[in-house]
Structure formats: C-alpha cells, structure tokens
Specification:
- With 268 residues, this protein is mostly helical.
- It has one domain.
- It contains eleven helices and no strands.
- Helix 6 packs parallel to helix 8.
- The relative contact order is 0.19.
- The model has no long low-confidence stretch (mean pLDDT 83).
Length: 268
C-alpha cells in the first residue's frame, strides 16, 4: 500500500472503533473496494489495526487500568472468602473479568463453530440492535432518572454485556455498538457506558489478536506498523471527543443518535 492509503485506513480504524459501526467492516471495505487489496490481506490488516486503538484506550484510561492491575493480587487472594461484586471497590474488576470470560466463551464458540452460519446475518442483527436502541432511548426518556456507575455493576451486567461483546466476532457487528447498547439498556450513565465499553475492549482485543495470531499467523511489515501508529494517534484523540460528547448529551438522545448511525451503516 502507498503511504496515503496506510494513513487512511489507520485513521478510519481510529475513528470508527469508538462508534457503533464495525470498524473492521469499514477498513475491509476500503481496503478491498478502493485500494484493491485481496480479502485476506484486508481482514488481517483490520484485525491488526485494533492493537492501535487498544493502546489508545489503555493510555487514555491509564489511571483506571493501573488501578485494576493493582487490585488483581488482593482480588484473586480474596476470592475463596468473598464472592465477586461483594465489595464496591472491586466491582469494576469483577465486571471486566466476568464479561471478558463470557466474551471468550461466546466469541470462541461462534468463531470455531458458528461463524459461517451467522456471517450472513450481521445486517439483521444491526437492524434489531438499532430498533432496541430506539426503544431504550424512549424508556430512558420517561423512566426513572437514576443512572448507574461502575461501582454498581452486577453479575447480570457482566454476563449480558459479555455475551453481546462475544457476538461481535461475527463480521459486520460492532463491538463498541453492542457493548454500549448493553450498558445503556442496563441503565448506565452514557459516559460511563462508553468508558466501560472502552475498558472492555482492552482484554478482548488483546486476546483476539493472540488467538488469531496463533491460529492463522499475521505477517507484520513496516506498512502495517505505520497504519497501526496512525490508528493509535487518531484513536487517542477521538476517544476523548466521544467521552466528552456522551457526558454532555442526554442518555435518550445518545441512544437515538447511535441508532441512526447503525441504520446509516446498513447502507454501506
């Protein structure tokens, strides 16, 4: 690829990773239809670029990540005597661990056994999720005003959101769209929903890249490194824009805007 093309696809990944549109699908479409790469190369590139946005999320949320890492030793040693979510301080770590576990179970099963059967239905899933967001927005407009935050996560939240994130292994289904929808449906504050979604992306993307590398082997060249660096830089800038937007807009309006984005993506 030419330098401009590498910058373009890196920038697309950096922007669309945080939106309810499949960044992998966008990168693959541009790589195959506009740049002329073969399908396999485009898919590998799209998977690799997620490392850039994963690093952007890690850097931007570094205080949360550092806090979670520091909690791991005491959390693991305390499990025999306490159940997950029993302490509010460790609720976020419990949420991340259990949601990632269910993501791995659902995503791994679909990748190994159901990906071919379900690969033809992402548009239907996207349409259903768009309708669900509209309903969620309507409910949030007329429902109780109380919003939930990270220290209020439960086992049900973890399982529900983890399963939704696992479904994003199906080509065309947005990981961020699925998880943000799940969290908004569970009545989380809009900014908190995006923040938790971005935190969940870190272990999920890392595990997915390791798994795919072990099973298929992705050859990394200088061009892929350039594109990943661009996705990291653009991703770091745009993640702040998304979180600021979510913090200043009513939750119901966020739901309606995300639904509109999902329906717009069906036209691609």
């Amino acid at each position: 690829m030419e330098l401009f093309e590498l910058i373009l696809i890196g920038a697309l990944q950096g922007v669309f990773e945080w939106l309810p549109v499949s960044s992998e699908g966008i990168v693959s479409i541009v790589s195959t239809q506009l740049i002329g790469e073969d399908v396999l190369t485009s898919v590998h590139m799209a998977i690799w670029l997620h490392l850039g946005t994963m690093l952007a999320a890690t850097l931007y949320l570094r205080e949360d990540v550092a806090s979670l890492v520091r909690q791991v030793p005491s959390y693991m040693s305390g499990l025999p005597h306490a159940r997950p979510f029993s302490e509010r301080d460790s609720a976020l770590l419990s949420f991340i661990i259990i949601a990632t576990l269910f993501t791995g179970i659902v995503g791994g099963f679909l990748y190994l056994f159901g990906i071919r059967m379900l690969a033809g239905s992402p548009r239907l899933f996207t349409f259903i999720m768009g309708l669900a967001l509209i309903i969620t927005g309507a409910l949030r407009t007329y429902g109780p005003a109380r919003e939930r935050f990270a220290d209020d996560t439960t086992l049900a939240d973890s399982v529900f959101v983890g399963i939704l994130q696992g479904l994003s292994v199906i080509p065309g289904i947005s990981r961020s769209g699925s998880t943000v929808f799940g969290l908004l449906y569970r009545r989380f504050d809009a900014k908190e929903a995006f923040r938790l979604s971005f935190l969940l992306s870190i272990p999920a993307v890392l595990a997915a890249n390791i798994g795919i590398e072990l099973t298929s082997g992705i050859e990394v060249d200088a061009g892929m490194l350039v594109a990943m660096c661009v996705s990291f830089i653009v991703g770091y800038v745009t993640i702040d824009i998304v979180l600021r937007f979510a913090a200043h807009v009513r939750v119901s309006l966020v739901c309606f805007i995300l639904a509109a984005m999902l329906f717009a993506s069906l036209a691609l």
